[in-house]
Amino acid sequence: MTQSAVDSAGVTESARILKPRRGLVASLRRFARRHVGATVGGCIVFLFILIAVFAPLIAPYDPLELFPGQLRQPPSMQHLMGTDEIGRDILSRIIYGSRISLRVGLISVGIAAVGGVVLGLIAGYFGGAVDTVIMRVMDVLLAFPGILLSIAIVAILGPGINNVMIAVGIEAIPVYVRTVRGSTLTTREEDFVLAARASGASASRIIFRHILPNILAPVIVLGTLGVGIAILTAAGLSFIGLGAQPPQAEWGTMLATARVYLQSTPWLAIFPGATIMIVVLALNLLGDGLREALDPRMRL
């Protein structure tokens, strides 16, 4: 092989490597230009993920450290967000609280997505009695208000952040089942699915190899929006004493203890409440942008 052929082969291989990277960068830039709100929301979410990961390096104090004589101190240079009712640094507790809240949101959505996708695929592909049984159970779950169903599940399992994740995940499963079932009913009649069935492919191969990749877009959007809903629900359960238990640094628990001091020291509730609002708003903006980007009807 000549030197020129070797060089051209090397250039071709480099182009193959760089082309997907450039394509990804171009897609991200195009998404950022068309969906400014989603880009801002994604940046905020990414920032809070970094805060949660590097909380021990970022937090100025331990979230459980007490400062005697500095109870309910207003924001200052020493404590940028002030101290709480027993002298703990609020900023440090909010930073560490991001770990709990984001973990609750992600794990809850994971439980709901996995359970909902599997049940929705089974109901939509097989139909018949299987579909009827699954959808009637989902109808029963949907008959209960979401927060009431979560409270009932936590009351059965017992208070605690792990049980909150299970309760919030179960409460959200029906939404995923309905969405995936509807998409599966449409996709299973496509030509490529009929061809796979005619070629003798097994049901599991058709479901997970041909149908699932083509219905992931709405699941991704639901998951993004669901993280924000899960964080709100978990904060609400912690607020009424069913979620994270003191002295854990969790945003809903911080709001619960701060409600007694709303008039005298409002910053105890303002900072954790504003944090919840910012994170949930950022997730909603990101979810709306992904919905517009992934749904062809929204693009039109």
What's the short version?
The protein is an all-alpha fold. The chain has 13 helices and no strands.
Provide key terms for this protein:
mainly alpha, MetI-like fold, 75% helix
Averaged pLDDT:
85
Number of helices: 13
Query: What Rg, in angstroms, do the CA atoms define?
Result: 24 Å
Low-confidence stretches: 5-9, 11-18
Distance between the termini: 51 Å
User: Any idea what the shape is?
Assistant: elongated
Estimated helix fraction: over 70%
CATH architecture: Orthogonal Bundle
What is the count of structural domains? 1
Strand pairing plus helix content: what structural class?
mainly alpha
Largest sheet: none
Give the CATH topology. Answer: MetI-like fold
CATH superfamily: MetI-like
The CATH class: Mainly Alpha
SSE string, helix = H, strand = E?
HHHHHHHHHHHHH
Question: How much of the sequence is in beta strands?
Answer: under 5%
- Strand segment count: 0
